[in-house]
Amino acid sequence: MKNCDQFREMYEAYALGALDPAERATLEAHLATGCQDCAKSIEEARWLVSQLAYMAPEAAPSDMLKGRLMQTVRAEAQTAKRSTPSRSAIPFWIWAGVAALLLFSVYSAWNAQRLQREIHAVNQRAAGILQERRELDAQLQLAKRAAMIVTDPASVRIVLASQDHKSPGLEAKWHSQLGIVLTGQGIPVPSGNRVLQLWLIPKAPEGKPIPSLTLRPDVDGKFVLLVSNPPELMAATKALAITEEPEGGSAQPTTTPRWVGGVS
Ligand SMILES: [Zn+2]
Hints:
The protein is α+β, with helices and mostly antiparallel strands. Helix content is 44%, strand content 19%. It has an eight-stranded antiparallel β-sheet, with helices on one face. It is rod-shaped and about 105 Å long. 23% of the residues are buried. It binds zinc ion (ZN). Zinc ion (ZN) is lined by residues 2, 4, 7, 30, 35, 37-38.
């Protein structure tokens, strides 16, 4: 024969250690009889309390948790209405206040986190758009520069002939102030991660090839390479050469040039 109803409103308070000694003794005596229902309820209440104490602010309070708290507050309210002074050592309004505070702080923490995440996401989107614009601007600037080099009559045209006569020739336009634009079409894509690298061959008799940028043609064998800051002056350069090199390029040519063109 069980009379668990009288304990129903005590579980949370018990788990919080907030029962007065007489109530606690009664409840513990009841538990000692092996009541599985109450034991289970107290286990749940303990879990609830531990959740309140350790709840990660990341998580939204579950409906179950809110429900339990509200249930407890309501139960306490009813108890208070019935005016049974021995019911609990903690007055209802404190208990309700604690519950409300817990809910509020859990919610605020969660909301603050969510707000922070949202602000972070908005900032990231804004930064992303700004970055895209900057990249687009930079690309536009480069494209403009390349267009100026290609169209300016002051640019020197350099034809780079294929040394093995297997590939189409390449063409470069070199503007003394704006740089070099190298273009190609129908160029076989180097195998694996290998790249084509541009070299400036100096006029100086002992001068070694000066490494410049690397490139990989697209699948159609097309490419446009802009060298904004050539590593040597046009006046001091005898020829342009292209070799195939490992990814990232080399400090000095590791293969024989596949294209060479004299700078006149
Ligand atoms: Zn029971």
